[in-house]
Amino acid sequence: MKKGTVIKSTGSWYQVRLDDNSEIQCRIIGKFRLNGMKLTNPVAVGDAVMVEPEQGEENTGIIKEILSRKNYIVRQSPRKKHYLHLLASNVDQVVLIVTIVEPDLKQGFIDRFLLMTEPHDIPVTIVFNKADLYNEEDLQVYEALKYLYEDIGYQCLLTSAQEKQGLKALKNVLQDKTTLISGQSGVGKSTLVNSIQSNLVLRTGDLSDYTGKGQHTTTFAEMFALDFGGNLIDTPGIKTLSFNNLEPMDVAHNFREFFEQSSNCKFGNCTHRDEPKCAIKEAIEQGAISELRYYNYITILEEIEDQNYWERLKHM
Q1: Please, are residues 195 and 201 in contact by the beta-carbon 8 Å criterion?
Q2: What does R_g of the chain's alpha carbons equal in angstroms?
């Protein structure tokens, strides 16, 4: 058997770069699970795998083993709500691309995305792109969000591919790291990345969350080598994020500033809603915790409880 790294996933086939830098197309036989959870794609880009070449076939093989992952990023499948979709594994960091305008920023998406990376303590840099389109009011929004997120430990950058603004800083972030890059559709991710490395043409299509009328977009991720050192794992544009796979306390523990303060709550299982002597609500009143983040937190909790309503009834 040979060892390699999965560099592209198309759903049924996986492109694996072997340790000798040759590449082989692989498939899987049997079922792989992640901590007992159901997966739409059991193998992720970034996975270290053991491959057995197929007899009589040229440049094809079978993935026989997925080696231990140092981390992974998983989301609820947009099509099968009881399944999870692996975005990537074995990453050093994540770069999340957003923009204030065109399309208008949905700030709640940032907090939802961070809910996927926080369980594994994966560093995230939030890149506010299309700065050339920002008016004075947009720049004030950026400064406010930069203050909010940097205050709780997330780096923020302001970029524009058109004006080459912030590109050097972004390059420094990416250099010599394996980075998952993601964002919602339309935020200019491909243009931004192509302005950093001109020969790097991202080929991923949008990940559609639309489930009616037979529309189907193949979901795949791909790893690209950066000529200044490091790897970039590109994912299709994400439209929405849901969290049927989480319980309310999972959310509470992964809003990092809430978790840090929660030891001061009267109750150890405080959900920071109606409980008395809640340190989080006190911190919000004092301006130490963002009311915006708290609103997004409550919205996610309510969605999870609504999604899981019938599942909860089944066990009563």
Answers
A1: no
A2: 21
Are 281 and 272 contacting, i.e. CB atoms less than 8 angstroms apart?
yes
Instruction: State in words which class domain 91-234 has.
Output: alpha beta
Tell me which residue of 168, 149, 250, 234 sits closest to 200, measured CA to CA. 234
Distance CA 293, CA 213 (A): 36
Contact yes or no for 84/77 (Cβ under 8 A): yes
Average pLDDT over residues 4-20: 91
Sign of CA dihedral 97, 100, 102, 105: positive
Distance of alpha carbon 263 from alpha carbon 280, whole angstroms? 10
- Span 48-101, pLDDT tens digits: 999 998 887 778 999 999 999 999 998 887 777 778 888 899 999 999 999 999
Residues 6+ apart with CB under 8 A from 176: 229, 230
CATH number of 248-314, picked from 1.10.3720.10, 1.10.40.50, 2.60.120.10, 2.60.120.580: 1.10.40.50
- Dist. CA 43–CA 277, nearest whole Å: 45
Looking at the chain, the number of H-run helices and the number of E-run strands are: 9, 13
Q: What's the CA gap between 75 and 112, in Å, rounded?
A: 10
Please check whether the two domains, 2-66 and 248-314, share a CATH topology. no
d(CA 163, CA 210): 34
**CA nearest to 50, candidates 33, 68, 35:** 68
CATH 2.40.50.140, domain 2-66, yes or no: yes
222 strand-pairing partners: 8, 234
DSSP state of 105: P
